[in-house]
Write a structure and sequence with these properties.
Layout (H helix, E strand, L loop, with lengths): L1 H26 L3 E6 L9 H8 L2 H4 L2 E6 L7 H6 L4 E4 L1 H8 L7 E6 L6 E6 L14 E4 L3 H13 L8 E4 L5 H5 L5 E5 H10 L4 E5 H4 L9 E5 H6 L1 H20 L1 H11 L5 H11 L15 H13 L21
Parallel strand pairs: 1-2, 1-3, 6-7, 6-8
Antiparallel strand pairs: 3-10, 4-10, 5-8, 5-9
Length: about 325
C-alpha cells in the first residue's frame, strides 16, 4: 500500500512540476538567480557582463543579478543558499572541502584554464626568479596555503624562504606598494601585471605554474549551491550555457567585450580594461577543448599536494568538489 501511495505521490508531483514549468514558460517568467563576485568587477568577470548585456541569460530563461562580494568572499553566501552561484578559487576553498562537513558547494566551471598568478616586483630588484625573494619584503595575506606555495617555489629555486620578511598586507594598488616598503606582491597578471605596464612601471614577474606544474590549479572558478543545482539541473545548465557564450564572445571580441565591462563598471580605468582584456582573452579557453572544463588530474593533483604538505586537515577525495556535468556539450 505504501508503494502505491508513494508512486501516486511521485506521479502527482511530476505532473505538478510539469504544470508549473509549463505555466512559467507560457508566462515568459524568468528564473531569478544571483551570482556573487570574488572581488570588484575586472576582466575575470567580463564574460558574465557580456552574457547579461547581450541577452544570453534571457535567451535561456534566466535573470541574473551580479552581486558585489561581502568581506570573506562568495563561498559562505553560496553555501547558505542566499545566492545560487559565486566565484571562488580552488586554493582558498580547499579548507572548506577538507572537512567532515564540507561546504555544500561545487565548482562547475573554470573561468581561466590556467593559473595566471605569480610574484611581481620592480625590475632589477633581483626577483625575476623565486630565489631572489630571499632577504626581501613580501606582502602576505598570512594564509597557510599561500605561504606554503611561496616556500615551495623559493626553496625549489635554491632560495632561503626563512629570510623573507613577511609583511601582513592586503595590497589594493600594486604599483604604489612596490614603490613603498614592499618588494614583492602576489598578483593575478591579467589585472595587476597589466596595470603596472599601463602605468609605465617596469617589473619582473614569475608565474607559479611555470615553477611547478602542480601549482597550475584552477583560479578563479564558478561555484554553485549543491541543493539548488540538484533541484534545478536544467536551470543550472542554462545558466552555464549563457555564461559560456559570454566568455566565448569575450575571447573572440576583446575590445567589444571590454566596452561592455566598462559600461557595467564605468569607474574602471579604461586603458587598463582594454589592455587587460586583450591579454586575458586567450586565457579563458586556452588549450582546453571548451571553455569552463576542469581537468580531474590537475584538480586532484593540487589537492594531493596540499594533503602531502599537511596544509589541509583532511584528505580531499579524488574528484571531490567539482563537476563538468553542467557545462554545455
Amino acid at each position: 500500500m505504501k508503494k502505491i501511495i508513494s508512486a501516486f505521490l511521485a506521479i502527482a508531483m511530476t505532473i505538478s512540476m510539469s504544470a508549473c514549468g509549463s505555466e512559467k514558460e507560457k508566462s515568459g517568467e524568468l528564473e531569478k538567480v544571483s551570482l556573487v563576485l570574488d572581488w570588484t568587477p575586472n576582466t575575470n568577470h567580463t564574460g558574465l557582463y557580456v552574457a547579461q548585456e547581450k541577452g544570453y541569460f534571457e535567451e535561456q530563461g534566466i535573470e541574473v543579478e551580479i552581486v558585489q562580494p561581502p568581506e570573506g568572499g562568495a563561498d559562505s553566501l553560496v553555501a547558505s543558499g542566499k545566492s545560487q552561484f559565486g566565484i571562488s578559487f580552488q586554493d582558498t576553498i580547499a579548507p572548506a572541502f577538507a572537512s567532515d562537513s564540507p561546504l555544500p558547494v561545487t565548482a562547475i566551471a573554470a573561468i581561466l584554464q590556467h593559473n595566471t598568478s605569480g610574484i611581481i616586483s620592480l625590475k632589477g630588484n633581483g626577483m625575476d626568479t623565486p630565489s631572489g625573494m630571499g632577504g626581501k619584503t613580501y606582502a602576505t595575506w598570512d594564509v597557510p596555503v599561500e605561504k606554503a606555495i611561496i616556500k615551495s617555489v623559493v626553496e625549489s629555486d635554491g632560495g632561503d624562504y626563512e629570510s623573507i620578511e613577511m609583511v601582513p598586507s592586503t595590497v589594493t594598488d600594486v604599483v604604489t606598494a612596490l614603490k613603498s616598503d614592499i618588494d614583492a606582491v602576489w598578483v593575478y597578471y591579467a589585472w595587476d601585471g597589466i596595470a603596472s605596464k599601463v602605468k609605465g612601471v617596469e617589473t619582473d614577474f614569475f608565474a607559479f605554474k611555470d615553477i611547478d606544474p602542480v601549482l597550475d590549479y584552477y583560479s578563479p572558478i564558478i561555484i554553485g549551491n549543491n541543493s539548488y543545482m540538484e533541484s534545478n539541473e536544467a536551470e543550472t545548465k542554462s545558466f552555464l550555457e549563457a555564461v559560456s557564450k559570454g566568455y566565448e564572445y569575450a575571447a573572440e571580441n576583446p575590445e567589444e567585450a571590454a566596452e561592455i565591462l566598462l559600461k557595467a563598471s564605468p569607474e574602471l580605468d579604461r586603458e587598463l580594461v582594454m589592455e587587460s582584456q586583450k591579454w586575458i582573452a586567450k586565457e579563458y579557453k586556452s588549450d582546453a577543448e571548451k571553455w569552463g572544463v576542469i581537468d580531474k588530474s590537475r584538480w586532484d593533483g593540487f589537492y594531493k599536494w596540499l594533503w602531502d604538505g599537511e596544509l589541509v586537515e583532511k584528505e580531499i577525495s579524488p574528484g571531490f568538489g567539482f563537476t563538468n556535468e553542467y557545462l554545455p556539450e
